[in-house]
Structure prediction request, 305 residues.
Amino acid sequence: MGTKNKSGLRPGPLFCLLLVLLLGSVCAAEAEESTEESVTPQLNAASIVMIQGKSYRLKISDAEASAKIKWRSGSKKVATVSSTGKVKAKAAGKTKITAKVGDVRLKCKVTVGGDRWDQLLEQYRDDAKTNQLVFVRYTGGSSAKVQMYTKSGKQWKCIVDCGGYVGSNGIGKTKEGDRKTPTGTFNLTQAFGIKDDPGAGTSYVKVNQYLYWCGDQPYYNQLVDIREHPHSCRGEHLIDYVPQYYYGMFLDYNKDCVYGKGSAIFLHCTGSNPYTGGCIAVSQENMIKIIQNAESGAKICIYPA
Prediction:
């Protein structure tokens, strides 16, 4: 027999249905809440490369847990860590920084190095305008190892690692025609190519019959369209350089356009020779990958290995 309400009437079918639905939704919400999994905290870096004397702040993704972290360095001779996660590089070597949060242990590999390439990575780690670095590690003759690093947050990742060529007389350019590749750090200013844009991260210049990289004094070391600046240009007629200029990137070497100091220095595809006239060359496959990943602010660093 059904129960009666205060009015002496039994609840109707509609009321019972609403009650069942309401109780069901409450139980479902409680079940959902109870099955929700806790998120494991994470460090902001799994590995870092540091220069002696420099510091880096390790942080944890869980704000509540951050106050309960116990930090520890595997080797205080290599790197120390403060109670707030500040890592300081002490001497060349490798160690691990451990962050203990309850029963969870989070680890970050720390490498303290001192060579030129580590210093470059460290130098541009906090530079928001530079997220790609291309290293040209000159190994002698006209050979080099070429690497491209791209930055996510403050961590560098190597995405290209290949062989390449420099000038037939090596590196250390001082003048036009010395067949040497310049030494130093330069900007990769723009992508270009005889072929269609492969999806460049920067602006792309599609080469045509009117484009020259000028070697004449009025427009020295500049890209010139002879329709806009009519003259008998003695520079490089870009469309003639096949397959070298299928794809490439301009460098800002001699950006003040000092006449005779050297011009037309590019990063481009390899040709049939194991050397260049003063540029840097990599395979077409790797050149495309560099173009696709290089953004505004990308730099190229050319030094002895």
